[in-house]
Amino acid sequence: MSMNTGQPQPTQAGKLRAGPQGTQLLSAAEMQRLALEDAPASDGRATSREPVLEGAQGSLKGQRFTLRQGRQTIGRRVDNDIVINDPSVSATHAWIVNQHGHYTLMNTLSTNGTFVNDKRIHESVLVHGDRLRFGQAEFSFLTHEQSTPKRRRVIGYTVGAVLGLLVLAGVAWWAFRF
Q1: How far is Cα 156 from Cα 148, in angstroms, rounded to an integer?
Q2: Disulfide engineering: 116 pairs with which of 88, 120, 124, 131, CB 3.0-4.6 Å?
Q3: Per-residue DSSP letters for 143-169?
Q4: pTM to 2 decimal places
Q5: Predicted confidence (pLDDT) per residue in 26-47, tens digit
């Protein structure tokens, strides 16, 4: 006969799994693991819904970190959401917080400072193309991929040039037909 004492009951492995009403008890690490499992997979492309931090130099150059909803920690310690293995980066250096679609970078009293576009900040709202620096580690904040505007301009110029030549040919034909 088992008696419900109102206290969570240990499982066979000795871990607490459920409260008195069957509520699951999860550690912060278990909750983070479950959240990551349920999150849709990112292809690493920058979008306004999933911006990225892209490394700008050294061993981080080209490496991308997709930003998600909520708060993400940045630092040298392995339990950060974004781990930067650089001695100039503090253990917990900064936070990036998504507040209603606006990403805000917050310095967390780091030793070597947090910078946006070469200005030391305590807190700053980020926009596409901002250059971020945590200690000596540099990144770009991207909310969309670079398009190919040159190709569009070339097409626009080509169409304009062809139309211009046709008009010029028409005027020349009209002028010399008499």
Answers
A1: 13
A2: 124
A3: SS----HHHHHHHHHHHHHHHHHHHHH
A4: 0.58
A5: 666 666 666 555 544 455 665 6
